[in-house]
Amino acid sequence: xxxxxxxxxxSAIALRMQQIKHKLVVLSGKGGVGKSTVAANxxxxxxxxxxxxxxxxxxxxxxxxxxxxxxxxxTAKQFGNELIPLxxxxxxxxxxxxxxxxxxxxxxxxxxxxxxxxxxxxGDVDWGExxxxxxxxxxxxxxxxxxxxxxxxxPDGAIVxxxxxxVAAADVRKSIQFCRKLDLPILGIIQNMSQFSCPKCxxxxxxxxxxxxxxxxxxFNLAFLGDIPxxxxxxxxxxxxxxxxxxxxxxxxxxxxxxxxxxxxxxLKRQHPTDExxxxxxxxxxxxxxxxxxxx
Length: 296
Ligand SMILES: Nc1ncnc2c1ncn2[C@@H]1O[C@H](COP(=O)(O)OP(=O)(O)OP(=O)(O)O)[C@@H](O)[C@H]1O
Ligand SMILES: [Mg+2]
Hints:
By secondary structure, the protein is of the alpha/beta class. It has a single domain (about 1-290), classed as Rossmann fold, CATH 3.40.50. About 40% of the residues lie in helices and about 20% in strands. The chain has helices at about 10-20, 35-50, 65-70, 110-125, 145-150, 165-180, 210-220, 230-240, 245, 250-270, 280-285; strands at about 20-25, 55, 75-80, 80-85, 85-90, 90-95, 130-135, 155-160, 185-190, 195, 205, 225-230. The radius of gyration is 18 Å and the shape is globular. Mean pLDDT is about 90; it is low at about 275-295. The site of magnesium ion has 5 residues, from helix 2.
């Protein structure tokens, strides 16, 4: 870590963040629900649409982004005070995994050091101009998402990931309260591992129950951003660091990720009705009130 010890004034972070149109955090109260997988595939889907995208791995102790992009043995270069993000699939990437030479070494930092490190990963990294910076958070409502929200002075929105079962939903409700306490707008909920299609007959099998994510949306008046099915190819591509969306472009799962990106875009437009490409149909006329958390 020592080679990357550079000082970051808060204003340096602000200057970097000014160049990024949308800062989005992916979080969940629950571990293992697919936050990193969703974050990586959303980033790849946005990049494939032609947007300039960055992906920050805020999971300091359990970074997944290096593996998901087949960069587990790579380290970030540093020029002066600036860290150069790694790049894959046209996405700029930064992770604590790129700041240590040995990928099996544990990053042993707590509270204030973690806060500082996340500040460096925002402010010292040459992110350049981006349309989206996706921030993959570790599970829970602890130091990392809090530090990110404080450093950025509020991201544009949170994408909350859940799986359908009640044990996940219970923790996700805590994430919702976390966002509300911080005034962090929630763009909506993605229900990952929503169903498994029987390989023989195609019938959906609800391995983890059904519609827990949708029920949370109804209860908390949040937008539902989509269902991502359980797809073994997602896990295989993730482990190999390959782009699932390219390799399985015609799959239902790839379409589900693309549709989630469209829903996120719509949620952002609802939030910023004065941005380019207004959501006239929603916030001016509100004809789509069933999906509009502001006007529902
Ligand atoms: N839709 C899916 N279909 C099949 N496997 C999936 C799907 N989503 C995630 N997985 C697999 O589930 C496992 C956990 O996913 P991931 O690491 O993205 O979760 P996470 O929420 O980021 O975990 P953590 O809380 O540890 O950060 C991985 O092996 C991943 O490949
Ligand atoms: Mg993760």
